[in-house]
Amino acid sequence: MGEQAFPAGAVGGAWHDARVAATPVEPTSRLRVVLGEEELLRSRAVAAVRAATRARDPDAEEHEMAALGLPLGTLADALAPSLFGGHRLVVVTGVHEAAGALVDALASYAKDPDPTLTLVLVHNGGKRNEALVKVFRAAGAAVDDCPKVTSAGERIAFVRNEVRLHGGRITPDAVTALVEAVGNDLRSLSAAAGQLVSDFGGVVDAEAVARFHRGQAEVTGFTVAERVLVGDTAGSIEMLRWALDRGVPHVLIADALADGVRTAARVASVGSRDVGELARTLRLPPWKVKKAQSQARGWSIEGLQQSLVVTAELNADVKGMAASADYALERAVRRIVAIRSDTSAARAGRVPPRR
Question: What's the domain range around 47?
Answer without folding.
Answer: 2-145
